[in-house]
TrEMBL record:
This is BNR-4 repeat-containing protein. It comes from Isoptericola peretonis. It holds the Pfam family BNR_4. Residues 1-31 form the signal peptide. Transmembrane segments: none annotated. PROSITE patterns: FA58C_3, TAT.
Amino acid sequence: MRRRPTRTLQAAAAALAAAAAVGVTAPPAAAAAVPTAHAKHSAHVDELPFTVDSSNQAGWWKPIDVVGGTTYVAYNAPGRTAATHEIHVAARGADGAWTDGCLRASDGVCATFVDDNGHNQPSIVVDGAGHVHAFVSMHHEQWNYFRTTTPGDVTSLVDVSSEMPDQDLAITYPVTARGADGDVYVMARAGADQRQARTGNLYRFDTGTGSWARAAVVADARDHSFYPDDLKVGSDGRVHLLWEWGPWPADPSRHLGSYAVYDPADGSFHDVAGNTLATPVTPSTPGAVVYQPYVDGEDIGSYWPALQTAKLSVHGDQLDGIAYRFRTEGVTAFDGYDVRFARWNGTAWQRETVLDLDALGPGVETSAAIETTSAGATTRVYAVVETTSCVTGQQSAVLRAEQVRGESTWRFGTLGDARTGAQRLSAVTATPGTDQLYVTVPSAGELFHATVPRTGGTPQGSSAAEVVAGLRGEASDVNVARGADVTVSSTLRADTGGALAVDGSCVDASRWISAADDARPVLTADWGTAQAVETVRVRSGYSKATGTADVLRSFSVELHSAAGWVPAGQVTNNTSATVTLPVPITTADQVRLVVTDPSSSATDVARVYEVEVLAADG
């Protein structure tokens, strides 16, 4: 079973500063270099000169739009009091200068909302007349909707919530899109709790009349909740809709990834095969609506298997594909999610795994931020990969996966430097096929904008494993003890066994912990074949500790050779989480850790992340 690494928030003034190369960038100094993709794309990156609130961190919003050379971004800014935020919209003109304005309440002051991390995020869209529409800070509550009074002027956003239909409904997760005719759409979850349901509604703003109307109830099912994922409009004006289902009233684990197309010309709905759909769509609607069906052991109430977060890309007037996160197992609500991609091949949905966490090794996760874009013959998937390793600690990077249609290989690179903690992203493709990315670093109060052209061909890229190895700081040193057979004198619990001390992971959930009554804990690792070794490294402790009481206090290390057990080092009164013991080059097939003083903490046990034995060079 996968174990979730401790997640921290990121800081990075240069989080995208190396995006100009688009290929993989160098990790921190302690890490091994990642193979660099060929730099065939030049990108412009800038950090917005505005402070972002730590609540600006959801992954299913639409905070960026591009119209006529102007880029608009929306973000949560710090409020006037603790645990509150304002909503701001900034515009970057053709000259590169940014203009920023807050959303104004009826009294003219900046509207303030209570933080609700992961829920209350802004979605924006610009209509054909140049007006900015902003849907903000709604988590099962009435509309919070603002619009500019002057086209393109982000300082003129005022509250016009009363103009929205369905004033009696509680609204959540609005996603937006602009139609080919300049009208705009918003899809949101609407509360129908009296029926034990939360439905998916689609609304349309008519730029000619300046008014909103509900276009359709997209999906509705008793004992189910609708979760909007994405909304995009093709060149023919048809609206592509993406959503997932959860149990009523709500759940972080969701299921049945679904896709449909709405034709505003006649109000009809179709599945990906072109079959007409009766609406509202339900989880059991026949046809090709569901791109990710239930798998064995999954139902609407499953904690896992489960789906979470999806985006779609449209190529011209046709669906290119759907990027989404799916897990077959997990520990918490947010870990264990692979990245998948689904395409319609003309007769059936075809699904492939873009990022397979099991294949990438321990301490690797994806975060709830994903996008996909399409231009020319190339599909891109943007995701945030988080790693926890014994060398670099907790790292994350914005990952670009790229595939030429008709090929099976995905090529990988990163945007910017690896950073500590979480990042969130969104992306759009602007004419004539340039990706524009929005990347927020919540803990650092930073927001970045990157323009990544799609010209110049596809970079050679790296494999996902090579990118992750760079983030983890895996150097050329070979740890012969990794994956060895282990015996221990005791364990605190069944889930703290000795094998965890040689699995390559330094997360708290992957430690050998001895029993409380074991005064002299012993671990022996046997890798079976004698090899020349020159270093033993012991990593111990607890990441949440504020001091050094939880590290191994006193211990000795022995190596086993043809002559028997040979001392390799002894440590007393230790206060370091990592102890490195150089040894004369020795041919050994086993290592033994003998702990004589487990710790100085109240619970006096040995807490060992890893025992590493490094092979001699050459």
